[in-house]
């Protein structure tokens, strides 16, 4: 092991000791030893062999022995054990500018944060701002650092990708040679994360060069990775890549179908074409031995010629959509116009940034008839969870606002913590004062699968629980779901007529749509919940709506399509059914 590596390990030991909150002198001794070795003129191995390590200032017996072990064996059990004793994400967090060991220790201890993804989420929820030694400036700096780091990761959250795609689409549309233009790929399918933007344009052959040139000259382009006659690729300043493909107008429907994917859907579709003695590719749909494609004016035409109903892009994942399209059994997917209200809205009563009235008025502006306020319960002390006393205050305020804002309705909800044993942190007589109750897991993420599953199922069986919040706790690109058997959870939800949340926050999108498809088949109801912590957060419902569609949901199984009256009786019926 060379000197550089040894220096690195000694420094890391120092940082680990700091994160663990050990005696500061101990950490400092390691930093000091690292410095001494770094500037050492002599050969370190010789120093070890001659037993002269202790000549280095500040290096005592114990430290000398550890360095010796490192030099001689290339390993140090003490270091390995130390490293294994803290979550790995904490060390990664140190790479974020502004995050020193002390700060890492603070967020770990106070907020149970163990990954960069969780840290990012906590910044968005203003959780760091109020921690000792932090503040708004620090929080902003950390968030900026995380965003910079993300530029070099592989996949992106939906909002960034959608925004970048919309901008570049507008930019390309402004060119007179673009006849048709569409975003294809995973973005059009509303996958939960996106690798790159696939942009498709129809133009005349003689205009291709000009369009490629226009594309690579876009002001947001950071690097050009490919520039050809019919395609070009760039990396945008945000780190997101964008592929452009140019086709003739007649090929556009086929190319759009092809580049929308998914690859699995396309493979299945090509298979089907072959059975019908047709060849399907990005250029057309060709009968056997034919040079000319069957003309199609739209994607619907392409599907029609294959004997299929039009398959909405969100469903093109090879999850049974082709069979359903053949039988005319595709669901009538929920649409924006079906949504009458939103649940799971936080306010300044807990960790939200706006008042109940502000949230309500924004929801009215968005055209909704009601919102369900769901602040945190008392176990969520880090989020200023509500004491029984403050619940009463909040309910009085809601009643006053309801008189003022009529016919708009504010529902009294709560996001109650599911404690590790599956009980809730309010008594039944408190829970009864709400119009509805969402139960969520916010702590002890590390339970074994069986214990976690029973924890959640137990909460779901509680007669006063109406919905399960963010069922797996995942943070997209940030934190894995906790170990939970979702099949069992869905079974319990189906049996007791409980609603599963589709958390619409683009960092969560939890329930995952793959589970969502199962839930829809089982007749389980879902709610598209923005989990809004600010006025703008209300708009997140759009992402949740996309996931509800991607999960094959029709309006009738999505709670947000209910009127207030229907909702109230539904919630009552849920409780009485138990
Ligand atoms: P992403 O970019 O990873 O978020 O997901 P996609 O689906 O956008 O994947 P991408 O960008 O690699 O390709 C866009 C579409 O092009 C893909 O959904 C289907 C089509 N495609 C690309 N390569 C192939 C392929 O090798 N086979 C088939 N069947 N389709 C392909
Ligand atoms: Ca793509
Ligand atoms: Zn929550």
UniProtKB/TrEMBL annotation:
A GO CC term assigned to this protein in UniProt: cytosol
Cofactor(s) annotated in UniProt: Mg(2+)
Pfam families from the UniProt entry: DNA_pol_B_thumb (PF14791), HHH_5 (PF14520), HHH_8 (PF14716), PHP (PF02811)
Catalytic activity: DNA(n) + a 2'-deoxyribonucleoside 5'-triphosphate = DNA(n+1) + diphosphate; a 5'-end 2'-deoxyribose-2'-deoxyribonucleotide-DNA = (2E,4S)-4-hydroxypenten-2-al-5-phosphate + a 5'-end 5'-phospho-2'-deoxyribonucleoside-DNA + H(+); 2'-deoxyribonucleotide-(2'-deoxyribose 5'-phosphate)-2'-deoxyribonucleotide-DNA = a 3'-end 2'-deoxyribonucleotide-(2,3-dehydro-2,3-deoxyribose 5'-phosphate)-DNA + a 5'-end 5'-phospho-2'-deoxyribonucleoside-DNA + H(+)
GO biological process, one term: DNA repair
Main localization category: cytoplasm
GO molecular function, one term: class I DNA-(apurinic or apyrimidinic site) endonuclease activity
Places the protein is found: Cytoplasm
Annotated keywords: DNA damage, DNA repair, DNA replication, DNA synthesis, DNA-directed DNA polymerase, Methylation, Nucleotidyltransferase, Sodium, Transferase, Ubl conjugation
EC number: 2.7.7.7, 4.2.99.18
Keyword field contains Transferase: yes
Domain Polymerase/histidinol phosphatase N-terminal: residue ranges: 341-420
All residue ranges annotated as the Helix-hairpin-helix DNA-binding motif class domain in the record: 51-70, 91-110, 126-145
The name this protein goes by in its record: DNA polymerase beta
